[in-house]
Give the backbone structure.
Amino acid sequence: MAAGCDMRHIVLIIFFSLIAVPVYAAGDEPRFVTNIWDMVTLLGKGAILTLSLSVITGIVTLITGALIGVGSVARSGWIRNFSKFYIWLIRGTPLLVQLFISYFAFATVINRTAGFELVNAFGAALIALIINTTAYNAETIRGGINSVEKGQWDAAASLGMTRNKIMNRVVLPQAFTNSLPSLGNNLVVLIKDTSLVGAITLIELTYSARNIMNQTAQPFMPFLLAAVFYLVFISLVTIGVNISERYLLRSKGKVGKAV
């Protein structure tokens, strides 16, 4: 029941994020920039798109990454091989290429088949980012699973627990805790990787800075302000990961202080 509620909450978050996000096409007329406040205003619009892509992708890929990560150590040969092939394929190809395939191939085929624009540029970017980040999160979680001592598997099995229960109740919680710093790093990389979605007509933070530079012929200030936005986002992620890590490791900390 709790798992069902969590899934409903995730679906609602994604749904309302998709409704709320303002998607700015490359052909839209930008506001003319006359001062720094105008720069901040336009960059803020791009930052909303960057943040929306990052939040939705980050939430979804925690689930998909865990599924692929668990699949890569599954007993079933075809599940294990499929998961490893997926990780190898996605990590071995550039995100920019995946964005182009998602936008110019996948979205085009879907839209022509449907007869209307079912997958827009934002949807194509979201698909590519989810596919890409899933592979990195899966590899991170696989490493976390392998870091759990074999003796814990044996101890849980001696209590009569099935493999699935051992994975869900014993291994995955520890694997997630061990993987948290790396998962946080993947999220940081994701935030910066959203700068590539400008290649498929989305005006995100970096693209907004480029537009301002073209208007004002001032390359320094727009990109400096964009860097500040990125630093704020990444600092918040770092603080959140550090707080979560301290919370999850609180029991180990108490053991260490007692020795």
The CA atoms of residues 87 and 135 lie 5 Å apart. Confidence is low (pLDDT under 50) at residues 1-5, 10-30.
